[in-house]
Amino acid sequence: MKVFKYITIAAGLLLTTSCNDLDLSPLDYNGSGNFWKNEAQVVGAIEGVHNQFRSNSFNYWLLGEARGGTMVPGGTSSLEQNIQYSDIKIQNFTAEKPNNSSWFDFYGKIFNINNAIKNIEEADYLSAANKSYYLGQMYGLRAWYYFWLYRTYGGVPIKTGTEILDKTPTSGKELFTARSTPKATLDFIKSDINKSESHFTDSNKVNNFDRVHWSYYATLMLKAEIYLWSAKVTTGDQAPESTDLATAKAALDRVATSGKFSLMPNYADVFAHNKKQNNEIIFAMANLENESGTPFSSFMYYPPNFNNKFDENGVAFDNNDPLKIQGGFLFNEYKFELFQAFDATDTRREKTFLSFYGNAAKTQGRGIALIKYIGFINSANTRVFADDMPVYRYADVLLMYAEIANKEGNDPSTYINQVRQRAYGSNYSPAVAYTNGTFADNELAILKERDKEFVAESKRWFDVRRLQDASGKPLAFSRAASYGQVAGVVEPILNEATEAHKLLWPINVDIMSRDETVTQTPGY
Q1: Burial status of residue 34 (CB atoms within 10 A of its CB: 0-12, 13-18, 19 or more)
Q2: pLDDT of residue 6 exceeding 60
C-alpha cells in the first residue's frame, strides 16, 4: 500500500493572507525567479495544494453538513458541554452576522492553483505528458473549490489570474471583481472540469493514479456531481439543460467500468486504518501518525464527564474512557434520532456511533459520540486519529446512479439495495430491501440511505438541497427529511415561506465595504 504525505512548500504555493476580500496578496514569496525551475518544484507545489485541500476539511463539514439538520443545534450536549457553531446549525445568518470570514478562505487556495496553472503551462522543462497530468489535477481542484462556492453562495467572483504578482496595483480597485451570475459561474465550473478531464491522457490515468491525490477518477466524480446538481437545482438565471443527467451518468459509467473500484464487503473496512486506499476509495484526504489527523475530536465523548455510563445493551462501561481516546470533547453532537434511524442489524450503526446512557434501563441521559474516524492504538498504547477521510468512494457512485435513475423515471432500487446489502451483511433479507415507489418516495429513500452511509462526510446539506419532493422542491423544506422535534413538532430544516433565501449564504458586509463591486446574496 502506498502512503503519501502532503508537503507544504511555501515558496511554490505563495501562501496567502488577506489584504482584500479575495485573499490574493502573498505573505511569503521568494520570487518567481527562485521557483518553478524544475519538475521537483512543480511536484512540491502540487503537494502543497493537496495539503491546503486537506487543511480545509473542517470547513467542508461546516458547509456540507453542519447545516443539514442532523446535529443537536444548540444548548449543551448530552455530556453537558456547550454546543459549538449553533448559529450555523440553526441557519441563523444575516449580512451583519454571516458566521464566516471571507468566502471561507477559498480564494487564497484558488489563487495558488491559478499560479500553478500559469507556471505549469509555461514550463518548457516538463514533458508534454507530465504537463498535461499536472494541469488535469489543478483544473480539477479549481473546479472543486468553485463548485463549493457556487453551491454555497450562488454566483461568485471568478478569478483565474495572478494579477497581484504580475504587476503592482496602484490601488485595491484594480483587484475588485464583481460576482458573476449563477449561470456564468456554473458554466465556468463545467468548463474547468471538462478541461481537467481532457488533460488526463490514457497513460497518466493509470500510471499516475493513487487514491490520495487528485486523479482522473476524482475529476469524473466531481463532474458527475456538478452535472447532477445542474440537472436538479435552479439558482438565479441558471436552469437545467436537457443533457445534464446524461453527462453525469456518462462520467459515473467511466468510473464504474474502470475495474478499479467496488464496495468493500465490510462497511467498517472502508475506514480501517490498516486498510487505507482500499478498493472503495476513489479519492481521500490522507492522514498519518505524527503528520496530520482528523478534525473530529470535538465529536467524541468527554472522559471527565463520561462517568457511570451504560452501553447499548444496558451494561456499565468499565471506566470513563472505554475507547482509550484520552482526550476528546462533545461540542458537536449528532441527534439521537439519527442513531435511532439505523436498524440494530445495520452494521453502519456501530461503526458510526457509540451510544451511551445514564442508567441501565436506557431511559436517562442518552447521547451519541461519533466514532467513524476512531483511528488506532499505536505502539505507545495511545490512540491516534490518523484515518483517511473519504471525499469520493464507490458508494457515491451507486447512490448517484440511483438519483439519476429516479430523475429519469426509472427504478433506483437496484442501486440502493447494493449499498443496503453491504450495510446489513448476513442480516440482509427482502424485509430490509427497498422496493421502488413514487418519485418522491424514492428521493426520500435515497436521502435516508445517504444519511446512514455518509455521516461526517460533508454531504448532508447539499443532499437536502438537491434531492426533491413530489413538486420538485428541495427536501430542505420537507418535514420528512428532518430528525427530531421542536416543542413536539417535526420542523423542516428551512421554512420555505420565510427562509427560502437561506438556501444560499450571505456575503459578509465587510467584504462589500472593501470591494464596492460585490453585491449581497439575494434575500439578505
Answers
A1: exposed
A2: no
